[in-house]
Amino acid sequence: MKHSDFKRLDLVILDGAEYRLSSHDTDGIVVVGIAAPHITRSITHGELEELLRSPRFRYVAEGASRAVAERGLAGLPEHFRDLPEAKRETALWKQLYVEELLRYIDAGLSKRNEPSVNAILPAIIGAVEMAIRKRQRGLVKRAGRKEALNTPPCAKTLLTWTRDYLNSGFNIMALVPQTHRCGNKRHMLPGERAAFDALIAEYASPLRPSIDGIHERAINLYADFNRGRAEQDLPKLKPPSRSSVYRAIRQMDPYESYLQRHGVDAANKKFAIIEYGVQVLRPMERVEIDEWEVDLMTLISDAGLLDQLTAQQASALEVTRLVVCVAIDCATRCVVGLTLSRSTSSQAAIRTLDMVTTDKTAIALSLDCRAGWHQGGRPEFIAADMGSAFVSEDLKIACAGLHARLMNPAGGVAKLRSRIERLFGTFSSHFVSRFRGRTFSNPVQRGDYNAEAEASLTDQDLLAALVTYIVDVYHQRPHAGLQGETPADCWDRLVDKYGLPTPVDAMDRRAIFGVELDRTISGRGVRVFGADFACDELRDAYKHRHRRKVRLRFDQMDLGWIAVEIDGTWYPAHDLSGALSGISFYQWSAFAQTVMEHNRERAEVSAEILHDGLRRLDQLSTDAANAAQLGRMKYSAEEIDKAEEKLGLGLHLLPAVSTDQPPSGSGWLQGGFEVGSADADSADAPPAPEDPPAGGTPPSRKSWRFEDDE
Known about the structure:
Blueprint: E1 11-14, E2 17-24, E3 28-33, E4 40-44, H1 45-51, E5 57-60, H2 66-73, H3 85-106, H4 114-137, H5 155-167, H6 190-201, H7 211-231, H8 242-250, H9 254-262, H10 264-270, E6 287-293, E7 298-299, H11 311-316, E8 319-320, E9 323-329, E10 335-341, H12 346-356, H13 361-366, E11 381-383, H14 393-401, E12 405-407, H15 418-431, H16 443-446, H17 451-454, H18 459-473, H19 487-498, H20 506-513, E13 515-520, E14 526-528, E15 531-534, H21 536-544, E16 549-555, E17 558-566, E18 569-575, H22 585-599, H23 607-631, H24 637-648, E19 652-653, E20 673-674, H25 680-683
Parallel strand pairs: 6-11, 11-12
Antiparallel strand pairs: 1-2, 1-5, 2-3, 3-4, 6-9, 7-8, 9-10, 13-16, 14-15, 15-18, 16-17, 17-18, 19-20
């Protein structure tokens, strides 16, 4: 396996200890502890893959840099999603203006100065307000409707936002309002300001002075000031702090300062613009995402998308055209994400983006593909059109969590998203033409062909066919845009040269893509999916906090542990039974359905019924996994609650014998389960997590409902 593209300023947190990258090769990586005695630790790529799925491991891009430390001092949370809603909305609103200005600058229609921006400011305001109205209107487009819009910025303010956004590497956190930092500040005297600015300008020098060196010069400069002021009986001036010097340097033009320090060639290489029409170099440097209505009439099957329809819709829509949302890596032309749905939606786009960051080899192997589907990772730049699915705030929040810059080029101009548009053309000509039920691109080409009557593929068949085509055909064929190289070979070659894209760790995945629920703390921790989840922080909160409600996040593809928020910090809490480790929500639903169907006939759950349920689950696991990752939308919190009420039925997975260590999850439901009513909540409640029951069967319950400890 090839090394990951870690950087020197990236921060790795393993078992609570902080490390920085020392070296990497094809066998693994070597990290060095930040704190003394600076312990060196090697991690193989096999161990790294396991750690990425564990809460023990955190990866923070450029986490050891001064910029990240400054954001921490500013009181901002780690994840954009954790900001208050008002600040999120303001930051997204600012981003619309900044991206619109950058669009003009990149097209050569404006420069980064006030007179130039003033000339185009009305057009920018009009474009932004039109985008906001389009998002707010929905289906209501009647004239005269009252709309609430924020006051637009002036040219100077817009340039300030743009500078902060660019200096942060297109990180939306730079646009979060910092009103808590407002207050009286000492303004520099005219002569003091001129001398300080001249001193800061010395940073852009071929001698490459450090920030600490500039700060020492500033202290000496103010010492000279104060000697002269003492002779004139004037009060002393307070020298600037290191953070003030740092902020002043950060306000310098990054390209110009880097050019002066390192030369023209180095500056051009570092600040190569990743924009429309420019050739990208690295895997996941630019990802294009779009939706396409498949040119095939498809049968809706019970195993796939039928669960999204009402009974009336299912009877009326036996045959339909489905929408596929696809993401392609521009450097290698590899398809890195795919979701099939009934219609366009922001949830389909977010689910596709989730797939972009994962290794999809297990899906390919389950469909008997001969090649793997490991291509993917954290994208740097995402290009999408102006469709409703790609301008939603939910998608923008997900992109902000990934630290990926989202751009929405104007619609109707195919060259702005040429790779994804060409891919859909390949799908239409080389994939769809192999199946009956083709709709063709227009009525003239279709003629008298009855596509509805000729439909032969179910939605599950279409999923399997698409994945097989992408993994074993498209990725393995010579590509004209790659000078005859196959996308799979191009990916391997560029990964050898630049390294694998940086990963998304398990805690970040729950923060960016996880479903959020509210649950009540009890002596067992919190209960979700019939299982008790606990950690030391939850136990402490139960003892010492008056507030019982906590927020939690979980990954629908792994219910083995959840993230719980306590006093603004997120902690991992493990399933005490060990039964849910590596189990998806869809597999849990299938098993709970088995238990529910059986207990309509019998009150007891025997070992025979348990094994029968597991056998059924094994048969459903492949279909469930494929549908979960490719064909179904991410469930909302409300849908999860309904599923628990419908399928939970008092299902309670018994804790493992020992809770000192996180459960291994070596077998499905190794601790067994119980079925009962909520009447036993107070009198017959199981002991707290730190003192689990030794065995036995809890008292039987009188009624069927999901017991939530509320």
